[in-house]
């Protein structure tokens, strides 16, 4: 049973709480909304009598828009798909992302983490309003080796940049191909084990032309991404508004835009002029 600790009423009527063990649900309900993305992986080769066809790519660099991976037969690999709301962008030059995963109830690393660390690759896909039911189906805890794509009736499309091809959700309008960088393991309160924070470098991005504006920006009204709130609640994002940080430091503005070339040029120019900067890197 949860017992509320001593609190004080502040002028703005905030409730001040200590954090007893087992009440993390309240903290999660405050840090919202958290964007939901599918992390798809492929298991390392499993030797055995069964085999399935999986794409393998040549070492030759090929335009993704022109060539698809060839198909060969190799030891059996299993596709894995799981939604994560503990996901976020870390930086954009180079583009780095992260997701975190608690261990299973039996204190085992989740299939996603096991596959990423074994193969060195994974993909991220935007979860949208239209795909919400499939997101929920793929969130169920199932035995290792079960193909969540099939369970959720999702068609696969294969990555084209990664050294080991990974299946992706074809219906998702935005998909990242990522190379594994590292894992940070944080200790949890018993019996939780650890939380695994996985970091990856984005090496390929796929965006459906249908969700772009005339000037090439992603239109949130068209993608309608879903996000995790607290408890069993979710949100769908359809509206946005624009605010530009005041000041004349170009590097900050370009950093907010995510423009790599403009941001780099502005920082180099500021460095030569000895301009002091503050704000987003």
Automatic annotation (TrEMBL):
Keyword list (alphabetical) reads: Signal
MF annotations from Gene Ontology: FMN binding
Region: Disordered; residue ranges are: 41-79
> Compositional bias of type Low complexity: which residue ranges?
51-73
Keyword Ribosomal protein recorded: no
UniProt KW Transport keyword? no
Q: Out of the domains of life, which is the source? A: Eukaryota
Signal peptide positions (record): 1-24
Pfam families found in the cross-reference section = Flavin_Reduct
Ranges for domain Flavin reductase like come to: 29-221
| Protein name listed in UniProt | Flavin reductase like domain-containing protein
Q: Which organism is it from?
A: Fonsecaea pedrosoi CBS 271.37
């Amino acid at each position: 049973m949860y017992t509320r600790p001593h609190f004080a009423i502040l002028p703005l009527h905030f409730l001040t709480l200590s954090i007893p063990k087992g009440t993390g649900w309240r903290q999660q309900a405050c840090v919202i909304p958290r964007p939901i993305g599918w992390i798809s992986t492929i298991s390392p080769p499993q030797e055995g009598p069964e085999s399935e066809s999986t794409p393998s790519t040549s070492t030759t660099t090929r335009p993704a828009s022109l060539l698809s991976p060839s198909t060969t037969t190799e030891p059996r690999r299993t596709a894995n798909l799981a939604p994560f709301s503990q996901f976020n962008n870390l930086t954009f030059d180079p583009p780095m992302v992260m997701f975190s995963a608690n261990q299973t109830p039996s204190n085992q690393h989740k299939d996603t983490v096991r596959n990423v660390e074994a193969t060195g690759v994974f993909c991220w896909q935007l979860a949208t309003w239209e795909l919400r039911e499939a997101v929920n189906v793929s969130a169920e805890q199932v035995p290792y080796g079960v193909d969540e794509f099939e369970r959720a009736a999702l068609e696969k499309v294969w990555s084209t940049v990664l050294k080991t091809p990974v299946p992706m959700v074809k219906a998702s309008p935005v998909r990242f191909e990522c190379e594994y960088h590292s894992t940070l393991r944080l200790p949890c309160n018993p019996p939780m084990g650890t939380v695994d924070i996985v970091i990856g470098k984005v090496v390929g991005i796929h965006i459906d032309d249908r969700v772009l504006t005339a000037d090439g920006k992603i239109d949130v009204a068209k993608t309608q991404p879903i996000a995790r709130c607290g408890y069993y609640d979710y949100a769908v994002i359809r509206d946005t508004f624009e605010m530009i940080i005041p000041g004349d430091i170009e590097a900050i503005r370009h950093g907010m835009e995510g423009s790599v070339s403009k941001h780099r040029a502005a920082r180099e120019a500021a460095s030569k002029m000895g301009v002091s900067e503050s704000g987003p890197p």
